[in-house]
Every structure is written in C-alpha cells, then in structure tokens.
Task: inverse folding
C-alpha cells in the first residue's frame, strides 16, 4: 500500500477518527439537486453556514468548549468522511453530497458532545430544510445511548448512513425497504439515505422510546451548558490577564497544555519567558468548564522558581496557585506551538537541499512529536503494516519513517495542522502588542467564586445516574417478560411465523454489546445479558 493510499485511509476511513473526537454534518435539501451549478451550490452553502451559526448564537456564544469551539465549514469534495459509505475504495458517485461539516475534540468533557447534539437538534428544528448526522470515535453513539430501544436488526456494520436528526427528531432508516418505484439499498449512500429521509416514501422516524432516550440525555440544554461552567478568581501575570480579557476561550488551550504537559513544556514553564515579564500580578475572574477546573485543582504542581507565589499561609493562596497553573499552561502552550512552527520551517529548509540529513531528521522528528496530524497518520501506517514489523530505530525503519515524514509534509493535512497549531500564537502576539497596564485591572468588581462542592460530592450524582439506568433495565425486563408470556399463550401461529418472531436473547445481547464494547468509561447504556425484540 502506498503512502497516498494511507492518506486516503486517514482522511476517509471511519476507523481513523482521533480519540475523544466528535464529527457532524448538516445536509441541506438543495444539495440533492443534481442540476445546480457548483458556484451556486457553494454560495448557498455559505449562506446556510451563516444561518446555522446565527441560529445557535444566543445559547452557544459564551460557552467555553473543552478544546475547540463548535464550527461549520462547507464541503463539496467526494473524499469527505461525512459522505462516504462503507466501500471506501470504490465510493459511490452519489456520495458526493454538498454539505456543512465540523469536528470537535471533547476530551474529558463529554458534555461538549451532548451540547453539540442539542445544537444540531435545534438547527434542524429551526431550519426544516436541513438534516444532520453526528458520530464519534466509537461510531453511532446516539444508538449506544438508546441501546434498549433500537431495532433488533441494527448493528454497527449496517448503521452507517442510517441515523439522522431531522426536524428535531431522531430518524433511523430501515434495513431494506421499498415504496412504489422507490427502493432503499441495503448499503445506502448518503444520497440514497437523504432521499429516503426527506421524500416521505418511507417511515423513518425512530420509536418514541428512542426519542425519549436521546431527549432525556439532552434535556436541560442550553441552561445545562451554563451550569457546566465554573467561575473562579485567580491571580495571574498581567500578560495572562490581558489575553484572557480579549480571548477568554483560550483558557481551554492553556488548561490542555498544562494537563498534557511533558518534559519539554515543563522546561518552558520553568523559564516563563513570554508571560511573566516584569512580574506584575493582577486579580481576574476566569470562566472555564467544570472539567477544566477539576483538571487544574486535582493536579499537584510545583511553581517555577521564577514565579512570584503567595505564601502558603495566605487566605488567597488557592487563587494564586490556580492562577500559577493557568499561567504555566499559557507558557507551555505558546512555546510548544511557537517551537513547532520554527522546527517545521527548519526541517523544510533541510529538505530543500542543505544536505545535513541528521539535522533535517531531528528537526522533523521534533516538529512531528507535537503534531496530532502526524501522530494519527503514523498510527494508520503502523496499523496497515507499513513498517513491516521492523525494529524501531533500525536502519530500514528509519528509512521508511523518513519517507513517511517526507510524504506527510506535502499533504493538505500537514498544511491544515500547521495553520491550526500556529493560530493561537499569532492571536496572543497581536493581543499583547496592544497597550495595556496593571491599572486596567485595578478596582474591578469581580464576581464571587462559584461553589465547587460538585467536585467532592459526586457520589450523589453517580447514584442518581445509576438508578436512572436501573429503571431502564427494569422497564426493559418487564417488556421482555410480557412478550414472552404473550408468545406462550399464542398456540395457533404457524411454524414460519414462530420462526420470524422468535426472540433470541443471546443474539440480541450480542448485537447490543457490539455497540458498547468499547465504552467502559463512556456514559452510554450498559447492556444486560439479554436483548430487545425486533421493531
């Protein structure tokens, strides 16, 4: 398999989705028109993009996302993962359906994922001429959440292009169905599925039980999104306060860098070259997600020697310590991304003919070590046997690695990653170039800290969640017994009908387990040792 094949697998293969990442797509009805000129399609997609973002602005504009904000971009290409069916090597021409799409890394904050589901539901409610799909690392997670209610025939291998959000409700396309001259293929392309969904030829609305399961999970939004925020006072260097004043969402980047720190980032924090300056300290109030707050508070971290810390005996020590961790996170993030850019440029200079192969390889290795795109690309190569089991560090392994790096440097994926990596650096430099002083933060009426009892009293919430899940299991068991009793009292059914309606507990349990077998830390349904009758 060539490196080009591998890039295709990375860009198109569902198995290549990075961990803790959500993908979503919005399909407008006009995209099904095969006669619309490309220029008009692109123009209408951009108009829809603005309309969708404007629709959700009221309840999403102040939300602090764990890693990255909800976003939508126009997509028309045939290789987009949103529109490919299971046949990746020979995609159906009808898979090319113009749409809007986005991706979002939610990390430790699974509430980001469900907030996006709520957002998509609202968009399809308020703009009836669009439908949406959403999936994550583990596939169709909406089906996992509704595991006790989904049809018996539904399996991971046949669920692709079957689950949609349309007009505010969940729709599941049947396995194979016909209505008049219309026929839905067993393996539908996204074009086939959208035609079936929007034409009204087939009954696609999921059962009330499925609707209730999903609506229960997203009930309370958008207010629940605000409850998921935590506000706290912190003492930080002036430069950090200035950045947070203009771009409060960058707190997520800082917390991510602090939480995922390595030896190199620790060295950067020990010097605090960018953000400590003349050591002017100010008090500010910071908003972040509860997950971010927990990541900061529950990590022990020694302040750098150069950092001016409040004495441990001070009543303000907690806000000083939290501010120190945030400040170190900003330093780590800034230096990491700055060095990525410079190392990439040095590596490219080496590739252009410097002849210093060792320096070139070292620079590329340093740059790629902080490149999430390269890590995903490298893993896809390993999974496909590209390195042929060679010992890492051997001559032949290094040769293959250099060839892969060389190829990756010329991919569009590399260009996108480079742009994303450097964007916060440019933003911070621009903000800090503006006039600012400590007097800007003196005399501010800072709001009080939010209570953080939720961080230490989570047992009650866990118990409530377990009881709620137990209710689902009990209800499921009652329905199963009723079906069994009804079956036993019906003695006049033909053998063929008994065969069709027979309820095989073991088979259905296996089907459901396939949806949750990777979900040991996930909030989706845990399936008991039996299944659900067909729908």
Result:
């Amino acid at each position: 398999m060539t490196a080009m094949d591998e890039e295709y697998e990375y860009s198109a293969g569902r198995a290549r989705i990075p961990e803790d990442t959500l993908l979503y797509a919005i399909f407008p009805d006009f995209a099904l028109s095969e006669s619309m000129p490309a220029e008009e399609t692109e123009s209408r997609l951009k108009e829809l993009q603005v309309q969708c973002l404007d629709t959700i602005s009221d309840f999403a504009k102040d939300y602090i996302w764990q890693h990255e904000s909800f976003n939508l971009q126009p997509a028309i290409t045939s290789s987009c993962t949103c529109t490919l069916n299971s046949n990746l090597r020979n995609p159906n021409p009808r898979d090319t359906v113009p749409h809007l799409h986005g991706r979002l890394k939610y990390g430790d904050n699974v509430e980001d994922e469900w907030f996006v589901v709520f957002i998509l539901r609202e968009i399809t409610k308020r703009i009836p001429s669009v439908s949406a799909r959403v999936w994550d690392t583990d596939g169709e997670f909406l089906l996992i959440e509704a595991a006790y209610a989904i049809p018996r025939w539904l399996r991971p291998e046949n669920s692709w292009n079957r689950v949609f959000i349309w007009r505010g409700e969940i729709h599941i396309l049947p396995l194979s169905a016909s209505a008049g001259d219309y026929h839905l293929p067993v393996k539908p392309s996204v074009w086939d599925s959208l035609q079936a969904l929007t034409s009204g030829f087939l009954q696609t609305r999921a059962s009330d039980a499925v609707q209730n399961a999903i609506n229960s999970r997203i009930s309370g939004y958008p207010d629940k999104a605000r409850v998921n925020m935590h506000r706290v006072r912190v003492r930080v260097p002036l430069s950090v306060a200035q950045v947070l004043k203009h771009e409060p969402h960058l707190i997520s980047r800082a917390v991510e860098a602090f939480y995922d720190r390595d030896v190199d980032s620790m060295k950067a924090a020990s010097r605090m070259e960018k953000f400590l300056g003349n050591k002017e300290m100010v008090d500010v109030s910071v908003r972040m997600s509860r997950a971010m707050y927990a990541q900061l508070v529950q990590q022990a971290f020694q302040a750098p020697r150069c950092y001016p810390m409040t004495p441990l005996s001070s009543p303000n020590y907690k806000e000083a310590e939290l501010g120190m961790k945030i400040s170190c996170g900003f330093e780590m993030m800034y230096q990491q991304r700055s060095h990525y850019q410079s190392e990439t440029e040095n590596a490219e200079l080496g590739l252009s003919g410097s002849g210093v192969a060792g320096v070139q390889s070292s620079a590329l290795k340093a740059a790629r070590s902080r490149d999430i795109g390269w890590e995903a690309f490298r893993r896809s190569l390993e999974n496909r046997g590209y390195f042929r089991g060679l010992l890492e560090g051997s001559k032949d392994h290094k040769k293959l690695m250099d060839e892969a790096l060389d190829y990756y440097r010329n991919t569009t994926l590399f260009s996108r990653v480079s742009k994303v990596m450097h964007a916060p650096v440019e933003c911070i430099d621009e903000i800090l170039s503006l006039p600012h002083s400590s007097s800007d933060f003196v005399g501010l009426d800072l709001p009080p800290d939010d209570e953080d009892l939720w961080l230490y009293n989570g047992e009650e919430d866990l118990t409530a969640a377990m009881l709620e899940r137990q209710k689902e299991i009990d209800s499921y068991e009652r329905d199963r017994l009723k079906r069994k009793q009804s079956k036993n009292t019906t003695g006049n059914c033909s053998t063929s009908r008994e065969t069709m309606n027979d309820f095989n507990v073991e088979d259905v349990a296996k089907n459901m387990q396939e949806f949750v077998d990777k979900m040991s830390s996930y909030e989706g349904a845990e399936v008991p040792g039996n299944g659900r009758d067909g729908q």
Remarks:
- The radius of gyration is 26 Å.
- The mean pLDDT is 79.
